[in-house]
Amino acid sequence: MPFRAYHLTAGGQIKVDLTEREVKEAFEARDGLLWVDIYDSTERDGPFLEQTFGFHHLAVEDCTSPLVHPPKVDDYGDHIFIVVQGLRWVGAPDVVEATELALFVGPSFVVSNHNVPLPSVERVAMRVASSGRHMRRGSDFLAHALIDGLVDDVLPIVDRLGDIAEMLENEIIKAPGQATLEAIQDLKRSTLRIHRVITPQREMLSRFTHREYAVIREEAELFYRDVYGHMVHIGDLNQLVRETAENAVAMYMSVLVVRQNETVKTLSILAGVFAPLTLIASIYGMNFDNMPELRWSWGYYGVLGVMVAVGAIAGVAFGGARWVSARMRRQTTLTQRVFPGPATFRAG
Hints:
Layout: E1 3-8, E2 14-16, H1 20-29, E3 33-39, H2 46-53, H3 57-64, E4 72-75, E5 80-89, E6 96-106, E7 109-114, H4 119-131, H5 139-152, H6 154-174, H7 178-207, H8 218-283, H9 299-317, H10 320-338
Parallel strand pairs: 3-7
Antiparallel strand pairs: 1-2, 1-3, 4-5, 5-6, 6-7
């Protein structure tokens, strides 16, 4: 089982790269603060968590399961078990999925578990290994650092999705296509995943600010309240992106309708020009014997002249190509007024 362990002794010394035996000894001694970070765990690692630390098997199952569990906090008396979620890019460059970080927090220990690399945990580990920062103030502050880093990594993702929404709006105005619609659907799915991650965690984090758990001391409540505020801010930004995505779908359909109407209008103009010409050609295409014009020496050229004259009159009546292009320019201006550019929807 891959893990890394750090032990802050009562004398203030930081020990790193502890073995399983040293981890067990430090945990049983309750000396200072012990942090064990377990990554890429499987069901075979369950006995280590149960036998070394005595954790409840239901909590251990949540750690060893490959599934992403909903955010929660369980109180086991001498420690609490926390499940928090973060986000990461996956597959397509603009699609996100939830990640999970499980924490066992006691007065003298923190055991973290995650099955995918988390940059936030790496940053905390670097600070702990170099100076012992985040561990010197206690387990509740170490847990706060891990949770706060996970939440802070969500904000750039939401900002990036907001930029994507703006680009899609601009693309809808200029050249909407099937790829644009698929990108909008990916954006909507990403915002929905963020909503599912943020909403339950706000309620969970608010519980850490009301002295509900003994392991969270009063001096740490202010820091958890700050994380809660970040969660609220992220939720509000994500809601703006969700609304922009919904508006983008309606805008996409409206632009398609406008362009379809322009196409139909152009075809109608062409049909109006060629309809009388078709009528004349149809009349003189009939095979009746008693048609005097068929025997005129200049009948063929006369009919062609009439057709040209009628076509010219119809073209002038519709205003010709200049009228059509002017109408299209006015319609484009109207579309841009009805569906403003990305700057109108910029969040924050």
